[in-house]
Design a protein that fits this description.
heterodimer, A: alpha+beta, 20 strands, 23% helix, 34% strand, disordered C terminus, B: mainly alpha, MetI-like fold, 13 helices, flat
Amino acid sequence: MTTVHLSNVTKHYGSTVAVQDFNLEVADGEFVTLLGPSGCGKTTTLRMLAGLVEPTGGRILFDDQEVTWLAPRARNIGFVFQAPALFPHMSVADNIGFGLSVKGRDKAFIRQRVDEMLDLVDLEGYGKRLPAQLSGGQQQRVALARVLATDPRVLLFDEPLSALDKNLRDTLKYSILELQRKTRKTAIYVTHDQSEAFAISDRIVVMNAGRIEQIGTQTDIYLKPRTPFVAEFIGANNGLNGTVVAVDGSGDDAVVRVDTGGLLLRRRGRTRLTPGQAVLAYIRPEDLSVLEDGDGRVHLNTIEGTIDRLIFEGASAQLRVEVAGVEMRADISGGQRLALVQREGRVRLGFDDVTLIPSEAEAGTAVVTDGVPDEAGPAA
Amino acid sequence: MSAASTPRRRPLLSSRRLATIASHAYIWLCLILFVLPFLALLSQSLGQRGGASGLGNYAAVFGSFGDNLFWSFKITGLTLLIDLAACLPAAYALVRYPVPGKRLLFSLLQLPLYVPGAVIGLSLLLTYTFVYKIDSMWGLVLAMAVGSFPLMMTPIVVAMKDLPVMFEEASECLGATKWQTYRRIVFPLIGPGVSAGLLLCFIIVFNEYLVTLFVHPPALETAPLKVFNLVRTNGLAPTTAALAVTMQLISFLAVIVFFRIFGTRHFKGTYIL
């Protein structure tokens, strides 16, 4: 049972900043994912946790033990690489037993542990095979068994599924989660794939350009993005530049009115925004619905535009509408998507939710999104 | 049936068939060119001059020339060991660590390959005579090692470069020390490079006579040097040819044995990525 603590961890390569002032607490048994585009420093952070890269500054603690400068072998970690990295000249059993054998455990113990691990990853009877005789998914499962065999304190995953095909990725990500739950190991997982991060994490750390943009649960990150980067990186989003024109009322019933140059948007709820402030307004495509004549539903915001095109995607359809010179995307599901196939001309769209982020919000600064108060950052 | 539907007969000499014949002919020509000198030597070794003839010439190889063959094997074996001891750590360091001026260093290490054997021999002779006064077998062994280590180094460096560093990282994350990682992961996986280096060095050192001519101690005569000396003083006697054929067979056997041992285990593209 281990907690992981990173404090002001920094890595510079010459003048290039790979990771800057990274602070994170991972609770015992927690599954935390570092999510971000390539080159955002997530893998470097993971490699610093493993001891494969030395940080330029900061501290890393496992429980109360400082491991910042320890060699990988002294940290007792389990690192799963992007490729399975099984030793090609050793059998599956020898691969799984490697960690125990280099620590001098006796042969009978190793054999028993290898059998347990093969059983755990559903590969009983595969012990004598060479890695080359296994499929990609089986190899990655052996890689998992190999790290679990040594009973590591922390599991580290570096995009372990990125080399596999989609179906295999889907099944394996749940296997990883199940194994982590079963073994109750603290796990840190790196990926650029949002759906993977959303499917398996307890918490997600969104990173960009070597800094943390936001830490939170799936719903925090999706519904309450704190920076423009998070709003644009996670899911599809309609983004508009605007200015706060007025704040009416106060408390939970406060209504912020924002002018986006042609469109007037309203947002209800607590706020710390003030009139005149520049903001970025984000509207999720799935929050937009098409309003028919005589529709009884009442929305805080109603906008009108011209249908540009409809992209039919099966279960849902993407409606592209030009509103006041800006193309907006609305994701339509259910029967309405079929009715829209033949539709042309003007259309009315209604929505209630708008995310407003002050334009100066940047990664690493303590900007609080104008949203409902939450534990990660109280709003005014 | 109309004429158009009759299948056309295949011409006797189509361009494709001509190309096939030409390429076969080329392969045979090359084979003959390569094998002819060996066959000539073989026939010479079975000829008659003096007392012995035929296979009798070969009795001399294991009788009076036995010593020369023994020295050749001993010198070659020791040279291989020294080359291996020098090149394994050097190749690892060159590939895995940021050595300043790496490319230049690697080019300089290749130098013995481009320097004529006579030049190496002469310079080593000068060095040994005036500086070290080495007058034993070790002078020759060291001379051979200096001349041949690039042949050992290059394939090992290439194998190291081809080996993804991920395997070493995986091993260290599993708790292995650097030495355990090297012994159990790196060394077996650079096997193809090591065996190629051993093979190249064996063939070159075993058959080397020019450097030996300069630095060999008076009492020590390797098999190739013996052949050279005998031909110079005696002409090509059948017994000398028999020694030459034996050496050629040993080299040939070495190639086969190396490929049998290492080929099956290591040449099959063992890396999975």
